[in-house]
Amino acid sequence: MMRWAVEPGVSSALHQTNADNVEMETKELYEMDNEHPIPDVDVVDINTAKVGGGSDLFIVVATALSGDRRSLERLLRKIERYLEFIRTDEFRAESGAPTIENTNIIVKIPSTSASAVFDLLERSRPWVTDNGATLVVETETGWGCSDL
Description:
There is one protein chain. By secondary structure, this protein is an alpha/beta fold. The protein has one domain (10-147): Trna Endonuclease, Chain: A, domain 1. It is 41% helix and 14% strand. It contains four helices and four strands. It has a four-stranded mixed β-sheet. Helix 2 (69-85) runs parallel beside helix 4. The longest helix has 21 residues, at 10-30. It is globular and about 40 Å long. The termini are far apart.
């Protein structure tokens, strides 16, 4: 039986390389991309505060979203950022405490988006509800940014 000698530090160096690769892949998933239907995952597209408290926050998907991993990850990250935003002092100062009755995250998305996208949105409803908002999906055939 042959044994391979491993130099000290080689394993940790390989681990670090893998960690760097994961970090780079994550950065590429979420970086600004004006060619993608969700160009910026780190910005609230539209926030309309309600007079009696709460808000309607819109995620605007500009063109049909495909069911590839990158698109689905970007959509989840966008929703996650909205959930983080509704817990900020800035949000509470303008809209009060978010509840499922007064705070909606409305995803405006073309109906021609992949079925995997709509499945993901459906599976995300309990997550959004558990974080104090209601997830609403609005679709129209041929919907685009100019219709907002």
